[in-house]
Amino acid sequence: TMAPALLDLANWSTWAVCAVIKLPQLAAVRAARSARGVSVGSLVLELTGFLVFLKYQIYYGYPLQTYLEYPIIIAQDVILFLFILHFSGNTKQALLYAVIFVGGWYMLTLQKWILELAMNLCTLISAASKLAQLRCLWQTKDSGQVSALTWSMSAYTCASKLWAT
């Protein structure tokens, strides 16, 4: 088995990276005052997957250290989402998205099977999120404000969680 110190290092490094994971993306969008190349659909899918995973972890009483990075990333994604809506002139849509996400958050636990089904779809949702972003890049032929550093940090956190889990 893995030494507890290595497991702690993997967890702490993942949380540290997650604390700043979206900052390069946020900085790029803010500096350019544009969300060109960043897919709204991708971000909606990513947020959906993260919210489902977080709700599942909370519902089943998992220890906080197993999912602490999700509230951190969700907060950054929400800020990024607001930036995208603002710079694309769609700020008024923020309220609609907020109602949908909050409503979805509560609907997940109306019946246990809903949460179970949503959790089983999380991998598909995550993959769809990445494909939506790649499709956006392909269509615009411009990486615009997409941050390679953010994607690299995301790859690291995935690898470290796979290793630690």
UniProtKB/TrEMBL annotation:
Membrane topology category: Multi-pass membrane protein
A Pfam family matched by this chain, by name?
A: PQ-loop
Determine if Zinc-finger is one of this entry's keywords. Answer: no
- What UniProt keywords apply to this chain's record, in alphabetical order? Membrane, Transmembrane, Transmembrane helix
* Protein location: Membrane
GO CC terms in record: membrane
Q: What is this protein called?
A: PQLC3 protein
> What organism is this sequence from?
Casuarius casuarius (Southern cassowary)
